[in-house]
Write a structure and sequence with these properties.
There is one protein chain. It is built from 7 helices and 6 strands; from the N terminus they run E-E-H-H-H-E-H-E-H-E-H-E-H. It is of the alpha/beta class. Helix 5 links the parallel strand 4 and strand 5.
Length: about 210
C-alpha cells in the first residue's frame, strides 16, 4: 500500500510504501463498532450511586390503616411508588461496565480503521515532527504548512518536550505517541498524520 507522503514546505506529495495487512484491510463496520464501544465502556468509572428503599431514612410506620380510609393501601413511606422513596433497581458505585475484546480483534479493528482512513484520503505520512522552540505559533504554522484544515491527529514514535508544549494549547490538534493511540481518537479526527517511524511501529505492533 502506497501512503501519501507530504512535506511542510509545500512540495509535491509523494508516496510511502506500507504494509497491506495494516493499511489495505477490508472495512469491517461491526468490528470497528465493537472495538470503539468497548474502549468507551472501559473508560467508565462506574461511580454513580442511587438509594434503594432500604437506604431511605423514613419512618417504617404504616401511613394509614389498611382498610376503611377509601385510599389505596400503603405500607411504608419509602416505597418506590412514592415521591421521595427509594429506587426499585438502584445503581451501585461498584457497577462494572468493562467489555472484553480479544487482542487479535482489537488489532484487526485498528487496522480496519487505518485502512478506511486511507480510502477516505484522511491519512497521510510525514518524515518527522520537530520544532526548534516550544511555541504554539511555530507548531501551528508547521501544521498549516501541511495544507490541512479542521481537526488533526498527529502520531509520532516519540513525543519530545517542544512538540508537546507547542501543541497542547491548540484545540483542534492532538499529538500522541504510537502506543497511546486509541480507536476513538482515530475515528473522531478529520485528518491523521503519521510519521515514518510511527508507521514502522504500527507495522511492528499490529502486523
Amino acid at each position: 500500500m502506497d501512503l501519501k507522503l507530504i512535506t511542510d514546505n509545500g512540495g509535491a506529495p509523494s508516496t510511502h510504501t506500507a504494509s497491506d495487512a495494516l493499511f489495505a484491510r477490508d472495512y469491517n463496520e461491526a468490528l470497528i463498532h465493537q472495538v470503539v464501544t468497548a474502549y468507551r465502556a472501559n473508560g467508565r468509572q462506574g461511580t454513580r450511586a442511587q438509594k434503594g428503599r432500604a437506604d431511605i431514612n423514613k419512618s417504617h410506620k404504616k401511613p394509614w390503616a389498611q382498610k376503611g380510609t377509601g385510599r389505596a393501601r400503603a405500607g411504608q413511606a419509602n416505597s418506590p411508588l412514592w415521591r421521595g422513596g427509594g429506587k426499585i433497581f438502584p445503581s451501585s458505585p461498584d457497577e462494572n461496565f468493562s467489555q472484553k475484546v480479544n487482542r487479535k480483534m482489537y488489532r484487526a479493528g485498528i487496522a480496519s480503521i487505518l485502512s478506511q482512513l486511507v480510502r477516505e484520503n484522511r491519512l497521510a505520512v510525514i518524515d518527522a515532527l520537530a520544532i526548534d522552540t516550544p511555541k504554539t505559533k511555530q507548531f501551528a504554522q508547521k501544521i498549516k504548512g501541511y495544507g490541512l484544515s479542521g481537526t488533526v491527529l498527529v502520531v509520532t514514535d516519540k513525543l519530545d518536550d517542544n512538540v508537546y508544549l507547542g501543541s497542547r494549547n491548540l484545540p483542534d490538534v492532538l499529538v500522541l505517541e504510537t502506543r497511546e493511540v486509541d480507536p476513538v481518537s482515530l475515528v473522531r479526527f478529520e485528518h491523521v498524520l503519521l510519521t515514518k517511524a510511527a508507521v514502522a511501529q504500527f507495522e511492528e505492533m499490529l502486523g
